[in-house]
Specification:
CATH architecture of the largest domain in chain A: 3-Layer(aba) Sandwich
Oligomer: heterodimer
Shape of chain A: globular
Helix content of chain B: over 70%
Number of domains of chain A: 2
Largest sheet of chain A: 6 strands, mixed
CATH topology of the largest domain in chain A: Rossmann fold
Shape of chain B: globular
Number of helices of chain B: 25
Number of strands of chain A: 13
């Protein structure tokens, strides 16, 4: 096993009295897509900025691509590509010029890159000026520049914000191609389903510290489903059924979250009671945090 | 209230809230300069005859007339006291009002904030109506405060009110120019360039008219400032003209706004190249690309200004011979070319300021982050802006010097020394101020407002120092005060070397600080 491409231990970053990162750990192994999850303001972008050497850490260990991001930023950046969450472009430069500029600044040659192909796939008009692009198109400019070369590491900060579903698919394909040739991806997001599709492992943070980290399949409660059913018959009592949580009954409507093991029993009971409407959704990140928070408060008592 | 202007009172309040520092500080500086001039004048001249002689010497020098305008009533104390204020400082009034208007129109559109507000119950014309209303309020405040201030400082009431009114008129015309130019391009910077070009044109028209065919002055509202004769036999009928021109310009702005979409300009944006030039590959090339057009425009302006003043300057030779004139020159802060250069040097320092403040905005908006996430080091990114800022200002001063020399030779001026050297003498001082701007950027985004403040602060300090007699060490804080008035004085290696050393030290501190700080 090679050394992890990103190793963060006990990272602390404060802005005045505000503690943005509070002992954060993050390990990204070579060749994996690592989901970096957290609600807005959790410290995802701050962590990424420390990883890029833009912010100075206050405490902790940070290594990226085997180097110190603060000291060796420029050298390390030859081997990585970064797409910020909110891309801001030079108003007077065309999209094509900006793509080429970013590729050249990473020390690569645009003529020998996949820029043309990617511009086509993302249906980007490269002759428009920076100021004329919509949010989604600005995002595409940064994505084309990032995917056009073969970096060892891609750092993507909420890269699909502003992209339509069609373009999200193109984005997913591009990530898959990059990992197929051995690239490592750090993908930050506040949408669980997006990370679910792409990531091998996830780190979930909240208020600057890690809540959970591991393989998605190992995080048991992440695979819980939220069930909402409207019933025509008598509402069954599921309180005792194994694997059922957060049970609530409102008239003829029943809602709960269910572990995969408990699903057959719940569905059987619901069918018996006469289901007229049924929705099943993966839990949202917010619900997970509420859970984690509730657990911590509960434990403290 | 019609639908297209709905919601403007709310926007007006928002505008005033945004300008709660800029507007009071801007107005205060202008009013205080006027008061200082008014209060200082009686002490400078022993009696009426002395004043008449001074006014006549001003009128006898085409270079001074070109810069300040003539004194039309030589017997009037107020006219003499307000020599600098009538036209030259009116340009600063214009700059303030154009900045305010641009800030609430095109800048808001470019950043997308207008769109944000456009989603609420606001009419299409509401931003322009609110901005015009704010400009009107500020202009009236400026006029009244200046008029009352000058009265308190000892000038007569009617003349002072007329003078306040002419500044207010200039402010309104400038607001109109700002409103029209804001419609032209999708880029706020290009709009600013159009506005600056127009004001420059009005200034040159007036300078040409005042030193040549008089009717040309009447084409420019800045020429009316002199022709109004605020402290002489006032031409009251001129005052409504400012209002009419301003109203006309704002009307044009409304028509133009109706014809274009939000966020676009009237001058259509041409599509850009599909691919980037191979030379556009590092931070310095990027800075040159971003500021290239601006630098070219500044170069043309600096060259043209140099030639115009060079051609007008030959009167200097005759003037230097007479004793009275010599004393005037001393009062006005050095020889005439030096007087022109002392203003031009501050203006050209603003090129450095725009480059540095642009770097600050790049950082704020995240473009710097995009660059610094590539193999571009902090050092290169920082050095690119600092180098372009300082080299650009040096280049522009050199262009001004060459322009002065060409104009001067073309007009058969007597030999008064090397005008290129005269212009270059200001470079080290401009560098110190530019380096202070760089240092403000390096100190962090919180301090970025200082970037704009340094040149204006030093200009104010220098002028106030002359007028109210500040202690030498206070005026001496301004780097510009250490520049020898070449060609009247000789070039000083001590001053040039000292200022350059200070600039280098400031840059070193800036670099040290920037290396250590967080980005964004």
């Amino acid at each position: 096993m090679t050394r992890p491409l990103i190793e963060v231990r006990g990272l602390v970053k404060t802005f005045g009295a505000f503690r943005a990162l509070d002992g954060l750990d993050l390990v990204v192994e070579a060749g994996e897509v690592h989901g970096f999850l957290g609600p807005n303001g959790a410290g995802k972008s701050t962590t990424i900025r420390v990883l890029l050497g833009l912010l100075r850490k206050d405490a902790g260990e940070v290594r990226i691509l085997g180097g110190d991001p603060w000291r060796d930023a420029a050298t390390l950046h030859r081997r990585l590509a970064y797409v910020p969450g909110d891309v801001s472009l030079w108003p007077n430069l065309s999209g094509g010029e900006i793509v080429d500029l970013l590729i050249r600044m990473r020390g690569a040659d645009p003529a020998r890159s996949r820029r043309e192909e990617l511009i086509e796939r993302f249906s980007l008009d490269p002759t428009k000026r920076g100021r004329a692009y919509s949010k989604g198109n600005r995002q595409k400019v940064a994505l084309v520049a990032a995917f056009a070369t073969d970096p060892d590491l891609l750092i993507l900060d909420e890269p699909t914000s502003g992209l339509d579903p069609l373009m999200e698919q193109v984005f997913n394909d591009c990530v898959a191609e990059q990992t197929a040739r051995g690239a490592t991806v750090l993908l930050s997001s506040h949408i669980l389903s997006e990370v679910d599709r792409l990531a091998d492992r996830v780190t979930i943070i909240r208020e600057g510290a890690v809540v959970e980290s591991g393989r998605l399949s190992d995080l048991r409660h992440l695979s819980r489903s939220r069930i909402v059913a409207t019933l025509s018959g008598a509402v069954p009592d599921l309180a005792g059924t194994p694997g059922v949580h957060d049970l609530g009954v409102d008239g003829a409507q029943l809602s709960c979250t269910v572990d995969p093991d408990g699903l057959p029993a719940v569905l059987t009971a619901l069918t018996a009671a006469g289901v007229t409407a049924l929705t099943s959704t993966p839990p949202s990140l917010e619900e997970l945090f509420l859970d984690a928070y509730r657990d911590r408060v509960g434990a403290a008592r | 209230m019609t639908a297209s202007t709905a919601g403007w009172p709310l926007l007006l309040r928002l505008g005033l809230r945004q300008d709660r520092i800029l507007a009071p500080v801007g107005l205060a500086v202008l009013v205080l300069m006027s008061i200082a001039s008014a209060a200082a004048t009686p002490g400078l001249y022993a009696d009426q005859a002395d004043r008449v002689r001074a006014a006549e010497s001003i009128n006898a020098s085409p270079a001074i007339v070109a810069l300040y305008g003539p004194v039309l009533d030589v017997a009037s104390e107020g006219e003499l006291a307000m020599t600098k204020m009538t036209v030259l400082y009116a340009v600063f009034v214009a700059v303030l009002f154009i900045a305010v208007v641009r800030r609430h129109t095109r800048v808001e559109e470019e950043t997308g904030r207008t769109e944000l507000l456009g989603g609420t119950a606001l009419g299409r014309h509401a931003p322009l109506v609110a901005t015009a209303a704010e400009a009107l309020l500020l202009a009236v405040a400026l006029g009244l405060l200046t008029g009352l201030g000058n009265t308190v400082a000892g000038l007569d009431l009617v003349g002072s009110l007329a003078f306040g009114a002419l500044w207010a008129g200039t402010a309104l015309v400038a607001a109109g120019i700002g409103a029209v130019t804001a419609q032209l391009s999708a880029s706020a910077r290009t709009c600013a360039a159009y506005a600056a070009g127009l004001v420059g044109l009005l200034f040159v028209l007036r300078a040409v008219g005042d030193t040549g065919p008089a009717w040309v002055s009447w084409l420019s509202p800045l020429g009316w400032n002199t022709q109004l004769r605020a402290y002489g036999e006032v031409r009251w009928w001129l005052l409504p003209c400012y209002g009419l021109v301003a109203a006309g310009l704002v009307g044009v702005a409304f028509r133009l706004r109706s014809r274009r979409d939000l966020g676009s300009g009237l001058v259509p944006t041409r599509p850009g190249p599909r691919t980037g030039s191979p030379r556009l590959a590092d931070a310095f090339a990027l800075a040159v690309k971003v500021h290239g057009t601006t630098l070219a425009l500044w170069t043309v302006a600096a060259g043209a200004l140099g030639v115009v003043f060079g051609m007008i300057a030959p009167g200097i030779g005759d003037l230097l011979d007479s004793e009275v004139a010599q004393s005037i020159i001393d009062e006005l802060g050095g020889a005439l070319v030096a007087a022109i250069l002392s203003i031009v040097a501050v203006l050209l320092t603003y090129f450095a300021v725009t480059v540095v403040s642009h770097a600050g905005r790049d950082e704020e908006d995240g473009r710097a982050e995009l660059v610094l996430a590539t193999a571009t080091s902090r050092g290169r990114w920082f050095a690119a802006s600092a180098t372009l800022a300082l080299a650009g200002t040096g280049w522009l001063l050199a262009v001004t010097g060459v322009g002065l020399w060409i104009g001067y030779v073309a007009a058969d001026g007597p030999g008064i020394g090397n005008l290129l050297v005269a212009a270059l003498a200001w470079v080290p001082a401009a560098w110190v101020v530019g380096a202070l701007a760089v240092l403000s950027l390096a100190a962090g985004l919180r301090w970025s407002v200082l970037v704009w403040a340094w040149p204006a602060a030093f200009l104010t300090l220098g002028l106030a120092g002359d007028l109210v007699g500040l202690p030498g060490w206070v005026s001496g804080l301004s780097p510009y005060s250490h520049v020898p008035s070449v060609p009247a004085d000789v070039w000083s290696w001590g001053s040039a070397g000292g200022l350059s050393a200070v600039a280098a030290a400031l840059l070193a501190v800036a670099w040290w600080r920037f290396r250590e700080r967080d980005i964004g």
